[in-house]
UniProtKB/TrEMBL annotation, chain A:
PROSITE patterns: PROKAR_LIPOPROTEIN. Residues 35-55 have a biased composition (Low complexity). It comes from Paenibacillus sacheonensis. Coiled coil: none annotated. InterPro entries: Bact_solute-bd_prot1 (IPR050490), SBP (IPR006059). It comes from the Bacteria. This is Extracellular solute-binding protein.
UniProtKB/TrEMBL annotation, chain B:
It is found in: Cell membrane. It comes from Paenibacillus sacheonensis. This is ABC transporter permease subunit. PROSITE patterns: ABC_TM1. Gene3D superfamilies: MetI-like. Residues 76-285 form the ABC transmembrane type-1 domain. The keyword Isomerase does not apply. It is a multi-pass membrane protein. One of its GO terms (cellular component) is plasma membrane.
Length: 449, 294
């Protein structure tokens, strides 16, 4: 009896553990379909390209006869379904009466979209997953160069391959210091810090007033992204730090841009300007704490402003200024794209393009999301962004990720968030850098031949 | 139609009819994916591109030569160590709650309840317990006059033990219930005869209880060992592998390799290695137990 039970438990466990391994393989199957699909796509290619110019005219005219049929937008904003999207649908269909606009919302967008694309059939308008390399775009997506916008747009060539652009940024954001004005007042900070020394002095004042100066959310890893993406851009004034790594065997040194950026957070940590225990932080709680003035600042994107307001802060109490990473007094700020719209080349291309144009120019989505609009001429609605622009920052436009640099990083299995954590906590940061440089050099040898 | 067939054929038909469905399910959802997994582990597939090239044993070489990958198994030791304590505690509670005790059903329920809770929910719950500044554990320690500043989840030396203690809380009741079932199958007259012969409680435990629940101990150890090797949800939710990777587990590494670094081939190889590792550890355990048991 006991034996049977033991055996049945064992087999049950084996079955469940095997089933768990299965998820990888499902996408393997899909992949075969995708391969078949890709082949049929190349044959159909001539046709699709040929019809593109005809669509261009109609996209401009607006409400033209060509724009009809069903168009589905695969979105990541599950919160907007049946709310804002309902309104978008009514307004868009009023402009293009022959179109039936539908929204499909999914979570964990990056991974799920990849599986959908690999399966060979996916909605007409999608957000381009960051997991898809630019070189793969022509296989699945339609070039979008022929959409004519009212004016210049940001990141026109960010998602391009061989001179054709496949993605339009849905909105853009910058990174800086989001702060609680009441907390600054309480600590006696009268002027916004414009240099790094002033920033440290302000942090000290906050600390003396019993306020945690900067909420790093160290434990959750992803909030550390600013320290290897954005602060390096602020320090160097160029957004090429990550891409330049492909040309060197030692991309991480104490005196280069990465080292300088990591050293800033290490200094803040050493001086006690971060949370009391950085390994025990709570993201949701931190928003409330910033809203209530228990925490003074965040170094994050402008997207967090609305969330702090939602957590109970008054809009007028939340401010936003460029992070002074050096003592030059020159305000600099990175400009990063959010998701990019892409169009399925086998979908309803004319309607999809009209939809993207409409989303950028008329929907008001950028204001709703608190973005810096993709149209360069359009002013952001968010009050904090107006304040931010008041400091006259030079915007450092992000560059597309270099595929070589990315594949070296993946091959070397370097987790950048983990690297920042290790650097900050290490007694000897040089050792940490030596270790990752070793990993990097080894992987680089295999990738760059 | 069935009447025309002989009894033997009818029986065969019915057996086949009943087994084919579960067998098909098993083959499509367990064995086929496993074979694909093994196949993938010999390729350099990136998860998207249609071409998968065969790279032989390279992935396996990488798994064993890269200490970053295989080295995380040392983190699992804490779960294993706590798992042993957990089993001892489970036997203890099973024996106590098997005896004459007021409200024993209530206590059994109380100890078993954590097992029913969802693993992620448990992790969140303990996030509030172990929080350094506002956690209930540190508040309690502070209230009774002890140092209430310990960073339970931020100390590289014992973060894994902190996490494993949550596993203890969650799975001890489950082990206990299995032991209880085994204890209840031991005939009471054995104890009666032993006590007439003058055996003490400890002697009874050593010579009657233990040999009788031997097989169940083996089963529980099997569950503990595989659980320790495959632990995932606790560190994933609570520490994200931190501080600085000291609570990362092997399964987290697999996930990271596949979905963050897009290296599905290597991740598949890691999964196969984990599978083999479980089999090896199990065989060793089986060897030790059967030698002592027979």
């Amino acid at each position: 009896m006991k034996k049977t039970m033991a055996y049945s438990m064992v087999s049950l466990l084996l079955v469940t553990s095997l089933a768990a391994c299965g998820s990888n393989n499902e996408s393997a199957n899909n992949d075969k379909d995708a391969a078949a699909n890709a082949n049929s796509n190349t044959t159909a290619n001539g046709g699709t390209n040929g019809s593109a110019p005809a669509n261009e005219g109609s996209a401009d005219a607006g409400g033209d006869a060509d724009i009809s049929g069903k168009v589905v937008f695969l979105t990541n904003r599950t919160d907007m379904v049946d709310k804002e999207y309902k309104d978008y649908e009514t307004r868009f269909e009023a402009k293009y009466p022959k179109v039936d606009l539908q929204f499909e919302a999914i979570t964990d967008y990056d991974k799920n979209e990849k599986i959908r694309i690999a399966s060979g059939s996916f909605p007409d308008v999608v957000l381009l997953s960051t997991l898809i390399p630019n070189a793969e775009f022509p296989k699945y997506f339609e070039p979008l160069d022929d959409i004519t916008f009212e004016g210049d747009i940001y990141f026109k060539d960010f998602k391009s391959f061989e001179g054709k652009s496949y993605g339009i940024s849905s909105g853009n954001s910058t990174v800086g210091i989001v702060y609680n004005k009441k907390a600054f007042e309480k600590a006696g900070i009268t002027a916004i810090p414009k240099t790094y020394d002033e920033f440290l002095a302000a942090a000290q004042k906050l600390k003396d007033a019993g306020i945690v100066p900067l909420a790093s959310n160290f434990k959750d890893k992803w909030p550390l992204g600013a320290w290897y993406n954005d602060v390096p851009a602020i320090i160097s004034g160029k957004a090429d730090t990550a891409n330049n790594r492909k040309d060197t065997d030692t991309p991480f040194t104490l005196d280069n841009t990465y080292g300088k950026s990591f050293s800033i957070i290490k200094e803040l940590y050493a001086k006690g300007f971060l949370e009391k225990d950085v390994n025990s932080t709570n993201w949701e709680q931190s928003k409330k704490d910033v809203a209530q003035g228990k925490f003074g600042m965040y170094l994050l994107g402008n997207w967090v402003i609305n969330q702090v307001v939602d957590a109970g802060a008054k809009t007028e109490d939340v401010g936003f200024f460029p992070f002074p990473a050096d003592n030059s007094g020159q305000a600099k700020a990175p400009l990063n794209p959010d998701w990019f719209y892409g169009v399925n080349k086998d979908g309803n291309v004319p309607a999809a393009k009209a939809f993207i144009k409409w989303m950028i120019e008329e929907s008001g989505y950028d204001d709703f999301a608190g973005f810096i609009p993709t149209l360069k001429s359009k002013e952001p609605k968010l009050a904090q962004l107006t304040e931010f622009n008041g400091y006259k920052p030079t915007f450092v436009e992000a560059l597309p990720t270099d595929d070589t640099a990315l594949s070296i990083q993946n091959k070397a299995q370097i987790d950048m968030d983990g690297l920042v954590q290790e650097f900050v906590l290490a007694k000897d940061p040089q050792k940490v850098l030596d270790k990752v440089n070793g990993q990097w050099a080894k992987a680089r040898k295999e990738i760059v031949k | 139609m069935l009447n025309n067939l002989s009894f033997k054929k009818q029986r065969l038909l019915i057996i086949l009819g009943f087994t084919i469905v579960p067998l098909l399910l098993l083959l499509t959802f367990s064995y086929y994916p496993t074979l694909e997994l093994i196949h993938l582990s010999f390729t350099n597939w990136d998860g998207l591109s249609p071409d998968k090239s065969w790279i032989g044993w390279d992935n396996y070489k990488e798994v064993f030569s890269n200490s970053e990958l295989f080295g995380v198994f040392t983190h699992n030791f804490a779960y294993f160590a706590v798992g042993i304590v957990q089993n001892i505690a489970a036997i203890y509670f099973a024996i106590v709650l098997n005896g004459k005790l007021r409200g024993k059903l209530f206590f059994r329920l109380l100890l078993f309840l954590p097992y029913i809770l969802n693993g992620v929910a448990v992790s969140y719950l303990f996030g509030y317990v172990f929080d350094t500044t506002q956690g209930s554990l540190n508040l309690l320690l502070h209230a009774i006059g002890l140092n209430g500043d310990t960073s339970w989840l931020g100390n590289e030396t014992f973060v894994n033990y902190t996490l494993a203690s949550i596993g203890f809380w969650k799975f001890m009741g489950f082990n206990m219930v299995i032991y209880l079932a085994a204890l209840q199958s031991i005939p009471a007259d054995l104890y009666e005869a032993a006590s007439i012969d003058g055996a003490t409680g400890w002697k009874q435990f050593l010579y009657i209880t233990l040999p009788n629940i031997y097989k169940i101990i083996e089963l529980n150890f099997f569950l503990t060992v595989t659980g320790a090797l495959e632990v995932f949800d606790l560190p994933f939710v609570l520490t994200n592998g931190g501080p600085a990777g000291s609570s990362e587990t092997y399964v987290m590494k697999i996930l990271e390799t596949a979905f963050q670094f897009n290296n599905y081939g290597l991740a598949s190889a890691m999964s196969v290695v984990l599978l083999l590792f479980v089999v090896v550890v199990l065989s060793i355990q089986r060897l030790i137990f059967s030698r002592k048991g027979e």
